[in-house]
Amino acid sequence: MYGLDRACIYTEVKTDILYVREKIKILFPKSCSESLSNHTNTYNINQKNINFIKLEEKKIKRETVIKIDFSYPRYFSENNIMPLDNELQKVMVEADLLILLNNLIDYEITATDISYDYFEFTTQESVGNFYKYHNIIAHFYRGLVRHYEDLEKVQYYNFSKIDNKFYTTGFTFQPFSGWKIKLYSKGHEHNKKSSQKVIGAILRLEHRISKKIIRDYFKVNSINYISIEEIKDCIQSIISKKIAEILIEEIEHSNEILNKNFKDFKCRNLDSLVRDNLEWILDYKILDDIISSISQRSYRMLINYRRKIKEILTLSQERASPKRDYFDNIKRLELFFSNLILFDVKVKCNSKKHLAFFYSK
Question: Of 16, 19, 60, 223, whose Cβ has the fewest other Cβ atoms within 10 Å?
């Protein structure tokens, strides 16, 4: 599933900032104002789908910049668990924002006068247990760190009192100015704040895209000229393939490390060798294929290696903190590519093709 979540729009008007301030106080009497300076105000609205309104006075032009930070899905729902994916509903939200803006100023503007400061485009998937994606998320994060000189990065973890273990809940990563990625458990985030709990994990990938990138791609920035499908096309054109290839490169990098570290392995060292390389093992099948390819032992001994590796990984994931899963990640990886990254990749790992990725380059 994909759609829009949070966004911020802005417009520059000829109305005096004092007039707009008074109008905000009338329309939102419970709003709380934060004065950053004599020429800038931020009003915390937190009403329906409006988060805050920011005013900035441009004295030279004698203009007021009005920014409205809001949620698309919360216009129709009490929460933003599901992103907005309906074009008609997008128009409805924006029409209401236009009415609000015209109520704040002393003349009328149109939708073409309203631009995006940023928007958050979201892909998500219900996945049952979030921790089962730990290995994929770890590889994705490592790949981004390896590829970009990041401006900001944060990893998120939580602690389970029942399991007495940590578990990953995602990360934030900003590769460069204008684009920020947030991969996280939407279900966990929602359940912390709401009494109406969500059952099962929701894996969400958010792209926060700024006005510069929006303008560079679309050549315009007016909200009424940009549809949800066009935003999806934008993400697929400039982001999806790039980050898919970054993840593929990181998995192949881990595969190379495993091939090097397990070369000429001894049976008596197998237990410690597997445990020393856990962070590079995405899935049991990958290590199984490596062992099968490099071992010169009999088929009977190979079967014994496979059984032993499976036992070690099973025991390791039972003890691991953060929680993780070393099995069925090939299938999860294909889902991650197609439904989260929005890039179709087929992943194979067997004795004939070994670890292979198939996609259009």
Answer: 60
